[in-house]
Amino acid sequence: MRRGLRLARLAAALLLSLAASILLAGWLTARPGDPALYPPAPGTATVTVRLVANAWHSGLLLPRDDLARAAAEAGAGALIAVTERFGAYPALEIGWGDAGFYRSVPTLDALDWRLALRALFTPGGRPAVLHVVGVAAEPEAAFPGARIVRLRLSPEGFRRLAAALGRSFALRDGHPVEAGPGLYGPSLFYAAEGRFSLLTVCNHWSAGLLNAAGLPVTPLLDTLPRGLALDLARHAGADAP
Q1: Which UniProt keywords apply (predicted)?
Q2: What region, left, alpha or beta, does residue 57 occupy, with left being phi > 0 and alpha being psi -120 to 50 degrees?
Q3: C-beta separation of 96 from 194 below 8 A
Q4: Which residues face 135 on adjacent strands?
Q5: Which of 48, 80, 118, 172 has its CA 20 to 30 A from that of 239?
Q6: pLDDT tier at 56 (50, 70, 90 boundaries)?
Q7: Which H/E stretch holds residue 63?
Q8: What is the pTM of this model?
Q9: Cα distances (angstroms) measured from residue 213 to each of 14, 153, 219, 232
């Protein structure tokens, strides 16, 4: 009886210690926002973007015209080329991820744990790609079942997001490098900058772009897509329809 009570107390202490360590790590790695950029001042112009989060991945849904304009203002030549390539669509959904896993696992049903573990734990990380999709439908219709978080950014915040996004494209002779057809709809893969690993997953990339736009983010929580959606809703005043 006493031994069982001691084991229960020890287990409770270990769980409490683990929870405290996770909270401390989350606090230490949190990246503050920029109040000069976000939230936008009341009554000022805004640009609406959306985080699209499914079971294992997140991306950003961005208005194409605003993105093309911001890319031109930021001098992001690669992004200008991409917005022209998808000029027929009012919005672009853009995500970043491991080159092998991203292209081989379009849905959760197709999940290959060997590919997933290789992507997460290869020393030094693995090559990355960007996935760009032209979207004409309303967000909820285009991404059924996804958690969609709507964010209203200031024009300057959106310009900085566009500049950061432009730097994510790998270049060849100054142009973005197409890396094959995409997974669904009118879409393409592009070679990307950065290395994918457990410490830098697709959701960290999405969070990094939003942080560039002035939003506070918590990378530890943002490791999972639903965690990123919760982080935005909790810390950044985001709203989800």
Answers
A1: Signal
A2: beta
A3: yes
A4: 91
A5: 80
A6: confident
A7: strand 58-63
A8: 0.82
A9: 39, 7, 16, 13
